[in-house]
Design goal:
By secondary structure, the chain is mainly alpha-helical. It contains 13 helices and five strands. Helices cover 54% and strands 6% of the residues.
């Protein structure tokens, strides 16, 4: 049976990249599959989080899921710390994954830069916990943006090594689902950098909670080149900022890049940017407003998380029991 699992870190500033690369696909998948969507607070604390901010951000991601159209009755929405099975399985995977595998993780290298000695052990072992998130449910398909691809390859390696070591076909080899024309949304200030929650410049990203003025202003200020938009995708080569804005436009319009260019090819940026802002406001405006409304109802959000966590535990407990048995732990 196909099982969808994905997660988002509650580290603030949810942005258009998170929406187009992940959340929007989560919404679409719920029509065909049972889905489990997790707010990964254990992952968040691999870097320092203010406790009150972490709680607020956990509720905000939950609100974003619901406001974007994920039905909490049909899907399991919960916070990672609400199901201890993730951390338990992660420990077992710490003993399966090899140091050499983790040393190759580019996200770890990017995050720590030259300051490797000061990084938390948790940040280093981050991908093992991610594999545990997924495999605690024997999930088979994982919708993510392109930046998570290497982590998902590691998840396959862990599953395969566990299966080989214990000579059992217990864990599936997962498939990443990297969908749509905006799987890697770039910064509005730099076409070579990913749009990110942690970029110090708020102008680099469109936040899901930005109002229409902020959205219009950020697109107006977005970096571009002096040429008009091409009418064929080939004309975007070597123009990363233009390619990024066209990809965003296509994704927000629900069409492909070639289709979008048939419509907007030949336009100057001065003409295109207000059009892009208009469609972004039409898509994000109602989501931002609903997020604000939900955020005012903490009791409701917490009920969703509590209920989701109980359902998640019920799903992962049989898998953990099987794993404990296979590993050789005495049943208590
Ligand atoms: P996180 O919180 O950084 O991002 C959440 C999702 O948003 C996608 N994303 C993007 N997509 C397109 N363009 C961008 N600029 C962009 N930035 C972020 C990410 O690819 C992701 O899908 N390690 C994960 C969280 C995680 C997880 C998991 C995911 C923990 N356990 C298990 C899947 C399965 C992360 O940090 O995502």
């Amino acid at each position: 049976m196909e099982q969808i699992f994905s997660g988002i870190q509650p580290t603030g500033n949810l942005h258009l990249g998170n929406y187009l690369g992940a959340i929007r696909n989560f919404v679409a998948l719920q029509d065909s599959y049972e889905c489990i969507y997790c707010i990964v607070d254990l992952h968040a604390i691999t870097q320092w989080q203010e406790p009150d901010e972490l709680r607020r951000n956990t509720r905000e991601v939950t609100a974003a899921f619901i406001a974007s159209g994920i039905d909490p009755a049909k899907n399991v929405i919960f916070h990672q710390s609400g199901n201890p099975n993730h951390a338990e399985l992660a420990w077992i995977f710490n003993c399966v994954a090899r140091l050499g595998w983790l040393n190759r993780m580019t996200q770890f290298k990017d995050k720590v830069g030259k300051n490797r000695e000061a990084a938390s052990v948790g940040l280093y072992a981050y991908p093992n916990l991610m594999a545990a998130d997924i495999l605690a449910y024997k999930a088979t398909h994982v919708p993510v943006g392109e930046d998570q691809k290497q982590h998902l390859e590691l998840c396959r390696d862990i599953a395969q090594k566990f299966n080989n070591d214990f000579k059992i076909d217990l864990f599936p080899l997962i498939e990443p689902l990297i969908l749509g024309p905006a799987t890697r949304v770039m910064s509005l200030r730099d076409g070579a950098a990913k749009m990110s929650k942690s970029d110090p410049s708020d102008n680099s990203r469109i936040n899901l909670t930005d109002d229409s003025d902020a959205i219009a202003k950020k697109f107006r200020r977005a970096r571009t080149d002096p040429d008009a938009l091409p009418s064929e995708p080939g004309g975007l080569e070597g123009r990363p900022e233009a390619a990024n804005l066209v990809g965003i436009y296509a994704a927000l319009s629900g069409c492909t890049v070639p289709d979008a260019l048939r419509d907007i090819g030949g336009m100057q940026f001065s003409q295109f940017k207000p059009r892009l802002a208009e469609i972004a406001v039409a898509v994000l405006g109602p989501i931002g407003a609903e997020m604000q409304r939900l955020m005012a109802d903490t009791a409701y959000i917490d009920t969703v998380l509590r209920d989701g966590a109980a359902r998640a535990r019920a799903l992962s407990e049989p898998v953990l029991a099987q794993v404990f048995d296979v590993v050789g732990f005495v049943r208590s």
